[in-house]
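Handoff note, outgoing to incoming analyst
You'll be picking up this chain. Sequence as last confirmed:
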Amino acid sequence: MTGRADYQPLYAQVKSLLIQRIGSGAWKPGEMLPNEFALAAEYNVSQGTVRKALLAMEADRLIVRRQGRGTYVSRHTRQETLFHFFRMVGLDDRRRLPASVVLSHRIQPATRQQAAALAVELGAALHAVVRVRSFDGKPSIFERIFVPVALMPALSVEIGVDMAEEMYVIYQERYGITIARATERLAAVAAKADDAKHLRADPGAPLLEIVRVAHDVNGRPVELRISRCDTTDTRYASDVT
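Most recent structure output, in case you need it:
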């Protein structure tokens, strides 16, 4: 084993190398990994070390281990993505699936804030997607999504119709980019003109703003998402353990 810091436990070194291979596209979403014996021989470690690395990756939802069948790279689905990353619930705490409609998609230069969040140069080309998410026909979330063009040059989304897939599913299925984690910052804000228009709210009405940066399996920032949420019928839920 070489190429990782000495202070890392051996299983963590193996985990990092396996994640690099997933991130590079060497193993595609849904593809089966070599078995533990083969991986142990390849990295010159024990089968137990490989198993510990795989268990850690499973806990991070990067792989799926199927008894008697093998280990597979995780594939995002709409429902799994919403369950893992979408935090808005009904006032009764029940998870609800939003409908999403894209209002516009254009390419724009990155502002200073966007460039810092996405680790790109100021003025770098970004896909800018604007959409509204609704519950039971009521607009509840007004979102702006920013993705570096360099990562996904041909990114396209259909405008004006219900989205069949989540953005994270699109990133993985079309470009092999798997979102592994996200950081969020919450704030109470007043509705601006665009918010009020698309959420059918009064200008100045209180909204919950969620600023999320999504990272791929190698820790690279992939998407900046700014969501303005009307919490009249919903609220943000997060379980802390």
